[in-house]
Write a structure and sequence with these properties.
By secondary structure, the chain is an alpha+beta fold. It folds into 2 domains: about 10-215 and about 335-415, Aminopeptidase, CATH 3.40.630.10; about 215-330, Alpha-Beta Plaits (2-Layer Sandwich). The protein contains 13 helices and 18 strands. The strands form 4 sheets. Strands 3, 4, 5, 6, 7, 8, 16, 17 and 18 form a 9-stranded mixed beta sheet that branches. Strands 9, 11, 12, 14 and 15 form a 5-stranded antiparallel beta sheet that branches. It has a two-stranded antiparallel ribbon with strand order 1-2. Bound molecules: zinc ion.
Length: about 425
């Protein structure tokens, strides 16, 4: 295969241009960030810009019922299933320029490079940009790809609402992206996604790219802890049923579980901890708290969930009057990526002399949904500042972006000849 490389300046200028859409001044960071919440006016503007670039490249565009954008480039053999690659255009409310954007604009740069070289692949190619990957507005992440691959029914997705009661179906219509293509039809030969790592591993180890092996398991729970609200001064300690204390104990226990090493590489976070009534001189009678657990090992995750359940029972037995209700709000097992894609990524990185390692994805990605219907895999680009992401400080430089998209180019070409 002839050696080809992307045009890094061109990729960089497109990243900068898309980064202007939804740009805002972040007061906490005192930096310019990106806010393109799913199905907002900014998301629409970002989508419009991306679709215009797709048209310039001569791609044929199709929008499905959940608003996913597909841009197709013909292969030599139209009877073969395509190689799909892409990511998402939406962002969190306080995001950066690279999360999602690198995968979509990198995919377009791959197509541009092939166009310039006059190269037609054997399999058709499809660039995908998927709806509401972040889940910040409507509460369900990877929504577009989950509907596209059949995990979430379309009507259920349409009915999801944001804080203002606006639903996905109506918002898709409003921004002009409620397409006609039926969902859950596309079955690509393979799916590849390039994404910023969003963590410190690659940058700390001085590596050029990451070969993603899997997405770790996720377990979310909401805890409703009910005790007894009473006067902070007049209630003797022995009479108290303090829901705030119970929440604190559970949080500490989670950290002890993590530190024990008994549950594999468990990560645990109590990201919400809301006491009621929330007064300085009132013992909290109720606490709403959340537990986010991640684990690259399914068995370790199951044992961690059981251990948390047992500890909660113990707490209730120890404290009369304390009740703790545990509600599971999300749960996915480990999603392994296909060895075929992993070794293609690794081989491409090695051939280019780029240092790399295998690592798992700490966050969720569209690729994990596509992994349910085809061979899927991911390439990680390192990020500065310990790979900070979902933050205006998020930054991967021209080389970091360019290296990872060169690998994407090689992997896509390789998979497109895999017949
Ligand atoms: Zn992302």
């Amino acid at each position: 295969m002839k050696e080809l490389s992307i045009n890094r300046d061109r990729l960089w200028s497109h990243l900068s241009e898309l980064g202007e859409i939804g740009a805002y001044h972040d007061e906490v960071a005192d930096l310019v960030g990106v806010r393109r919440l799913a199905l907002s006016d900014e998301d629409r503007a970002g989508r419009d810009r991306v679709v215009a670039w797709m048209r310039e490249l001569g791609l044929s565009i199709s929008i499905d019922e959940i608003g996913n954008i597909y841009a197709e480039r013909a292969g030599r053999d139209a009877s073969l299933s395509p190689v799909m690659f892409g990511s998402h255009v939406d962002s969190v409310p306080t995001g950066g320029r690279f999360d999602g954007a690198l995968g979509v604009l990198g995919a377009l740069e791959v197509v541009r490079t092939l166009n310039d070289a006059g190269e037609q692949t054997t399999r058709p190619l499809v660039v995908g940009a998927f709806t509401d990957e972040e889940g910040c507005r409507f509460g369900t992440d990877m929504l577009g790809s989950a509907v596209a691959t059949g995990r979430i029914p379309l009507q259920q997705a349409y009915g999801l609402t944001d804080r203002d009661g606006l639903c996905i179906g109506d918002e898709l219509e409003r921004i002009g992206y409620k397409g006609k293509e039926p969902v859950n039809q596309r079955r690509p030969h393979a799916y590849v996604e390039c994404h910023v790592e969003q963590g410190p591993t690659l940058i700390r180890e001085g590596l050029d790219v990451g070969v993603v092996t899997m997405v770790q398991a996720i377990s979310w729970h909401e805890l409703t802890i009910t005790g007894r609200s009473a006067h902070a001064g007049a209630t003797p300690t022995s009479y108290r049923v303090d829901a705030g204390l119970a929440a604190a104990r559970i949080n500490v226990r989670l950290r002890e579980m993590v530190d024990s090493g008994e549950f594999g590489e468990l990560r645990a976070t109590m990201g919400v901890n809301r006491p009621h009534p929330g007064m300085i001189n009132v013992i909290p009678g109720r606490v709403i708290a959340t537990v986010d657990m991640r684990n690259p090992d399914d068995d370790g995750m199951r044992r961690a969930e059981q251990a948390l359940g047992r500890y909660i029972e113990e707490l209730q037995e120890q404290t009369e009057g304390l009740r703790i209700a545990l509600r599971r709000t999300a749960r996915t097992d480990v999603v392994p990526f296909a060895e075929k894609v992993r070794s293609a990524v690794e081989g491409a990185a090695n051939d280019r002399g780029l240092s790399n390692r295998r690592l798992f994805a700490g966050a969720g990605h569209d690729a994990q949904e596509w992994a349910h219907v085809c061979d899927a895999g991911m390439i990680f680009a390192p990020g500065e500042y310990d790979g900070i992401s979902h933050n205006p400080r998020e930054y991967s430089n021209e080389k970091q972006c360019g290296d990872s998209i060169d690998v994407l180019l090689d992997v896509v070409r390789r998979l497109a000849e895999d017949v």
